Amino acid sequence: SFKGLVIILFLIGHGNTGPGTTPHLKHIVIGRCYDYITLVNPSFRYNCEDIWREFEEAVVRRTPCSVRVKDYQRMFRAVPQTLPCDRLLFWSKTRDLMHSYAAVTGRFWTLEDTLVGFMFNDLIWCGQRERDRGFDFQSCPEWSTCVTHPVYSLWKRASQNFAAAACGNITVLLNGSIHNAFNRKSMFGSVELDNLNPRMVSHVHIKVVPNLEGPFVESCSKGSILDLINVLESRGFHWSCTDRDVTLMILQCMKNPRQSSCQTCSSSLLHRKSLYL
């Protein structure tokens, strides 16, 4: 029937869509900006309203699948930021553990600690199908449906800048319980790694972290980690690798204290402590 045809065409036109733009996006982004420059890093001075205007213009003047990395150029020009040496932490498929690790140690900076990362973390946005009609709060395309996705393009540019600014020692946190822990299609593998400068980065510390009870798929001596090491060596980086980081194991045990490996870890630490008493 004609009605059925209309429904089918409607579904085709809206295939592979996800949630729409995050509600109250403007208030969240500008609010986070003021939070950052007032409480998180008060030494920085930025014009939050200008940053929002440049961001909005980059997104709403283009259709949802046609926002390129360079379209955010004016926005990023409004948020220059010098990052600290020896403190940058990169990661792939280890998000929750990465945040815990950064919080507990207090010495790392992640992409989410930069102003742009802080402002846009976990948000979704896209413009309407007709340009200059504002944000689409009903649905946005999935990342996989277009190369020039508005969210992906912003994070790609942010990741490029973050990696290019890296200096001194850096740390990379990878998941040892999955195949392709180092994935050339991930943001780290496809963007950040290529933007690291061997003349500025003196050492790359690789930390491979499997789940406490496995599976133990990859380590410093097997799997895609070897591919990462080959890339680093071919580009002249100094590196080291560990897959038994005690701090990371303790953090995992804090979430799952009943795991058998946590009992072993606890006994080992108590034994080590007794040696110094």
UniProtKB/TrEMBL annotation:
Keyword Hydrolase (UniProt): yes
EC main group: hydrolase
One Gene Ontology CC term in the entry: plasma membrane
UniProt-listed Pfam families: Rib_hydrolayse
Keywords: Disulfide bond, Hydrolase, NAD, Signal, Transferase
EC number: 3.2.2.6
GO biological process, any: positive regulation of B cell proliferation
GO MF annotation terms: NAD+ nucleosidase activity, cyclic ADP-ribose generating; phosphorus-oxygen lyase activity; transferase activity
Superkingdom of the organism of origin: Eukaryota
Secretion signal span: 1-17
Record InterPro entries: ADP-ribosyl_cyclase
Keyword Manganese: no
Similarity annotation: Belongs to the ADP-ribosyl cyclase family.
Protein name per UniProt: ADP-ribosyl cyclase/cyclic ADP-ribose hydrolase
Protein species of origin: Astyanax mexicanus (Blind cave fish)
